[in-house]
Each structure stands twice: as structure tokens, then as C-alpha cells.
Amino acid sequence: MIEYLPLIMFAVVFLALMAGYPVALTLSGTALLFAFMGELAGVFAISDLGFIPGRLFGVLSNQTLIAIPLFIFMGVTLEKTRIAEALLGNLSLLLRRLKGGLAVAVIIVGMLMAASTGIVGATVVTMGLMSLPIMLKQGYKPSVATGTICATGTLGQIIPPSIALVLLGDVLSNAYQQAQLSMNIFNPKTVSVGDLFAGAIIPGLILVGLYLTYVIVYAHLRPEDMPGTSDHSPYNSQNTPTPTQILLDLLAPLLLILSVLGTILAGIATPTEAAGIGALGAILLGSSRKKISLSGISEISLSTLKTTSMVFFILIGASIFSLVFRGYGGDELIQGLFLDMPGGKWGAMLIVMIIIFLLGFILDFIEITFVVVPIVGPILLAMGIDPVWLGVMLAVNLQTSFLTPPFGFALFYLRGVTDSSIPTISIYRGVLPFIGLQLLLMVILVIWPALVSWLPNILHD
């Protein structure tokens, strides 16, 4: 029984989270409870808790994690500028005669928002408020409209700059070093957030292509569900926009994306420095459009502080949990289980992907990233899995957690801004095809891993 205490500890955390207890307090509280119980039973050295201050200092002084509040600030600021509203209005007018044209416009604008903000909640809420009423007036089937908006909002998980990729980059960097040290490599290589950003660009664009293909094919097969003959638009205008108008609307988010991603991929700036550039650019953009005042910046800062505090509080709890878990030999137990699995590293990889997908039904991506990935990451990497490819696969898998009921956050975000006349089951039904497309992307990346590794290799060469 003692050797399985790490698994029991994990099960207790799982049950506590299901009961609705706060994530950070659940992780740290469970860890401390098992530590004191282990000390009384003589199976855990309570002196190991002396490493906690050093771990917490390492979390709070981590240069990579400083990018998180800056990216969040950039995303919240862009939400206030209403850039997406003008772009969606013009694109929907341009494509209004195309069957499914409004859904295509929603996906394109959502892709640009994802690349500009990296925040799923902001994209889903913004797109829901702007486009859902128009889609319903145009005659879209509610499940199709809500599914398209929810799925488009989750693109912020995989398209850089993504908060999920920043967190995964930090976790996998530590896991990669642990894996190499376990193989007696004492000058370990690292995997950076920039590598993950580069590796995720092509898969992100492929996913956008899958979304667009699906809605266009669906619109031709079921035109009554996605009509394209009405002239409704967010601005109630009947004038088709000129290419110059659309180009001007595209210019602002594109410049911001290039300033952030371009400086990272070109090696000019670290992700943290690029996040600072993005935050400043978002402020200048909002000020130029007279959408942000001093009181507005105060509101944005407060929202950023709340979100950042939540992320770091969970990270601190996860760090304590990881310390006690390893103190009980949990990493060795998991490694032994993986090594005994049939299929070697690919069998282990399949099991991990299935577990993370199932956990996504009840946990969010931050909890899975901080609790599960630090445990399984070093083992998979020590078995020879490429760290960048693993990071992108995890990001795509975690993306499904926003869409899988009952606790998919994108579903909650959209439910909060939709009319009560749309049943929740319609929202659930609408996201199912898009979950299938995300899983299809994972299969594509398994068959052609070069889709992930090509761009990072080019940049390193």
C-alpha cells in the first residue's frame, strides 16, 4: 500500500477538485496532509518540506513566467479596443453572399484575435457578443453558430502567443532537464517558449484550415443551417467594404502579431521582452483609437492582476504537491508503470494523451499543465520523445478541455453571453465536430511530426 501512496494522493486531489474546492489550496493542502501523515507513519521525511521556500522563490523569479502577466495585459487591452468588431463587420459584408460566409468571417477574425491576445475567454466572449446575434438573425442553426464561436475561441491555445504555450514551455523546460540528468547528461539542453511558438504556428494554421473546410462543406451540404443571402451585419450597412478598408482593419492586429512573434522567431527578443512590446503596442493602439483612458488602464491592470494571481497561486500549490509526490517516489512509480506498458514510448504516449483528454472533461488546462505534465513529462522525454513535438501535442490536447462538457470553459463563457432561448445542449452539440477536428490534428501530427519540427529547425539553422 505504501508504494501506491503517490497514486492515492493524486486520487484525493482529483476528488477534492471534483467537490469544488479551490485548486491551489487543494494541491498544497493535500500535499501537506500526506507529508505529515507520512512523517507519523515513518515513510516520509518531513525535512523535505524545507525545500519549499527555494521552490517558491524559483517560481516567482522565473524570467519566462514574467511573460504571463504581460500577455494577459495585452489581451485584455485589445479586448477594449474593439478592433475585432470593425474587422468582423467588413468581412461579414464582403462574404455575405457566400453560404457560410459569416462563419468563415468569424473563424478568420477569431484566428487574428487568438494570435493577438492568446486568451480564450476574451475571444469567446467578444465573438459571442458581436457575432452570435447576427448569425442567429441570418438564420444560422443555433448549434452551428455556438459551436463555431466556441471552437474559434480556443484557437488562442495553439496559435502563438499563447498563455498555454508559455506555461507548457516552462514546465517542459524543467522536465527536459530532469530527463537528461536522469540519463547522466550533465550539460542538458533546453527547450524554450520560442521553440514551442515556432513549432505551433503550422499546426495552428492547419487547424484553422480544418475549421474553414468544415464550415464551407457543411454550408453546401446543409445550406438551410448556414444561409448566406441576408445582408445583416454588425453595422447594419449595405455597402460592401473596399479592399483598402479591410486592409486597414487587418493592419493593426497584423502589426501587433508581427511585433510580438517576429521578434521572438528572429531571435531579437525573448518571449518576456516580446510580451512587453505587445503590451505597449496594445496600449498605443487603444490610445490611438481613443478607446482607453486612465480609468480604463486601471481596470485593465486590475483584471490582469486577478488572472495572474490565480495562475501563480495554482503554480505555487502545484510546486508543493510535486515536491511531496516525488518525496514519496511517485516519479519512479509512474516511470515503472510506463516502462512496463506494451508499445514502448508510443504506447506510453498514447496512454498519456488519452488520460489528459479524459481529464479535460473535468479539469482546466492550467490544472493539468501544473499537476500532470510535470509528472509524465520527464518520463516521456527520457524515453526519446521530442520536447517541442510533445509540447505542441499537449497544447492541442489541452485545447479540447475548453470544449468538452460538462466543464469546458469556452462553453461556460459563451453560455454567459447567450440568450436563454438557446439550450445548453445545443452548445454542447455544436462543439462536437470541432473536438473531432482537434483530435484529427493530433493524428496528423503523429503521422507527420515534421509539421512541428520544421520551422524550429529552420530558425536554429
Average pLDDT, all residues = 80
Portion in strands: under 5%
The helix content is: over 70%
> How many individual β-strands?
0
Total domains, how many? 1
Radius of gyration: 23 Å
Given helix and strand content, the structural type is mainly alpha
Number of helices: 21
Q: Terminal Cα separation, in Å?
A: 51 Å
Quick one: biggest sheet? none
> Which consecutive residue ranges, at least 5 long each, have pLDDT under 50?
231-237
What sequence of helices (H) and strands (E) makes up the elements?
HHHHHHHHHHHHHHHHHHHHH
**Overall 3D geometry?**
globular
Give a description of the structure.
Helix content is 74%, strand content 0%. The protein is mostly helical. It has one domain. The longest helix is centred in the C-terminal third of the chain and has 34 residues, at 294-327.
Considering the chains and any ligands shown, give keywords for the structure:
461 residues, mainly alpha
